[in-house]
Amino acid sequence: MESLIKWNSQYSVGIPQIDEEHKKLVNILNKLCAAVKSAEADNTVKTVIDELLDYTAYHFKTEEELLKKHNYPDYENHKASHDKFTKNILEYKQQYALVKQYSASPVLEYLKNWLITHILATDKEYSDFLVKQGVS
């Protein structure tokens, strides 16, 4: 399977549950990349998009509950970035349903860049805060 993202230790936020969820998101993105690039059946691509949406919702809920519980000062902005990402993926899903044969490369690049940037910048910001709160 061709990898869009290869997990490495620089992506760790130091909270094992969040790191495991991030690894799962990376795996789903890699699965979507492989499905699109190998021109698998539309059902496969649609299934993986649905899996990405479902797991993203699960992961965002985990993060947001943790941030809220510990009164993270930038909670609203963090949640807003999650909401924007979800909106963009839902739009992609709708576009794909209408025009199944358009180039997915820009979408895959968006997903890759968003996840890497979100983990390395946004999630790393809350990491230190939560670890100081005793979250591990």
* Beta content: under 5%
Sheet with the most strands, sense and barrel status:
none
DSSP strand tally: 0
Number of domains as seen in the coordinates: 1
Order of helices and strands: HHHH
Number of helices: 4
The overall pLDDT, averaged over residues, is 87
Condensed summary:
The protein is mainly α and 136 residues long. It has helices spanning 16-37, 42-69, 75-98, 105-132. The protein has a single domain (13-132), classed as Hemerythrin-like (Four Helix Bundle (Hemerythrin (Met), subunit A)).
Describe the protein's architecture and organization.
- This protein is mainly α and 136 residues long.
- It has one domain: Four Helix Bundle (Hemerythrin (Met), subunit A).
- Helices cover 75% and strands 0% of the residues.
- The chain has helices at 16-37, 42-69, 75-98, 105-132.
- The radius of gyration is 15 Å and the shape is elongated.
Q: Which structural traits does this protein have?
A:
136 residues; 0% strand; Four Helix Bundle (Hemerythrin (Met), subunit A); single chain; 4 helices; mainly alpha
Task: Itemize the secondary structure elements and their pairings.
Elements: H1 16-37, H2 42-69, H3 75-98, H4 105-132
Helix pairs in contact: 1-2, 1-4, 2-3
